[in-house]
Write a structure and sequence with these properties.
This protein is α+β, with helices and mostly antiparallel strands. The chain has 5 helices and 9 strands. The strands form 2 sheets. It has a 5-stranded mixed β-sheet with strand order 4-7-2-1-9, with no helix packed on it. It has a 4-stranded antiparallel β-sheet with strand order 5-6-3-8, with no helix packed on it.
Length: 289
């Protein structure tokens, strides 16, 4: 009875290990993908495509292809992983639009990661890398075909971070001259220019002559004209006394109500003419006698 129980327990353990091993195999299916070191190229620049193998089932052979747009890229070179032995055979052939990649291992190859790096050169500017990946064949160490390999045909490119927009600052508004000025603000108070427009009423303006100065200038001009007329009529030159030059301005001169001090000059001229006429008449009478 004990032997039967022991055999039953052993059988259950074997079945459990088989199920675990089977589930582990399903979970570790291989994958093949490709990635680029840049997402855009300019004319003359290079781009490297890494063909990567994950969950390697210990391959013995591998065949893949990289198809590319020949109007954007041209094939340059291929570099295989250094983990391959010297007896392993690696090949890369370019058809002008596709690079065929194949490796045949002498024993097996178990490493994960980059299998081969293919280098292209851009013949013109491009915002993308027009390359796709395809799997041709894969065999494990037992030379059995691997049919559950997952292939990502699109080439992965680095994710470019979006530029951070800086907060925009409002432009500085010009201060309106009519706006009120805050005297408590030292900056605004410093911009105020104080202009002293007070005019001393006792100091006459240099540009506008006073009425007294204008009347004195006019009186002097009239006196000079009268003196010249009296000298031409009487043949003598009348002298103007210093008192006449210093006399005050007649208030009635500008209004035309009175003759003012000009009457003295006119009277002197008339008396001079009468004296001259009397002198000439007296001389004629003496000549007749």
């Amino acid at each position: 009875m004990n032997r039967k129980k022991t055999g039953l327990v052993g059988l259950l353990c074997v079945l459990f290990l088989c199920l675990v091993q089977k589930s582990t195999v399903y979970a570790a299916s291989p994958s093949l993908s490709a990635s680029a070191d840049t997402g855009s190229v300019a004319q003359g620049e290079y781009v490297n495509i890494n063909v990567e193998l994950g969950n390697n089932p210990s391959i013995s052979t591998l065949g893949a292809a990289l198809a590319y747009d020949s109007s954007v890229l041209k094939y340059d070179s291929s570099t295989w992983n250094s983990n391959f032995s010297g007896s392993d055979m690696q090949m890369a052939s370019d058809t002008g639009s596709e690079v065929n990649l194949s490796v045949v291992c002498d024993d097996s190859y178990e490493a994960d990661g980059t299998v081969v790096t293919v280098r292209f050169q851009a013949v013109k500017d491009s915002d993308s890398v027009p390359v796709t990946l395809a799997l041709r064949d894969m065999a494990d160490a037992e030379l059995e075909q691997v049919s559950d390999c997952t292939v990502a045909s699109a080439v992965q490119v680095p994710q470019t971070a979006k530029p951070v927009k800086e907060p925009t600052q409002d432009p500085i508004k010009e201060t309106d001259e009519s706006s009120p000025v805050d005297l408590q603000d030292p900056q605004q108070a410093a911009d105020i220019s104080i202009v002293d427009e007070e005019i001393n009423p006792e100091t006459p303006s240099e540009d506008v002559p006073s009425d007294a100065a204008s009347g004195a200038a006019q009186q002097t001009a009239n006196a000079a004209d009268s003196t010249q007329a009296a000298s031409a009529a009487g043949g003598t030159q009348a002298a103007v006394s210093p008192q006449a030059k210093a006399s005050r301005v007649d208030a009635n001169y500008q209004t035309g109500i009175g003759l003012g001090s000009d009457a003295l000059l006119i009277g002197a001229a008339v008396f001079g003419i009468l004296a001259l006429v009397l002198a000439l008449r007296h001389r004629r009478e003496e000549n007749h006698e």
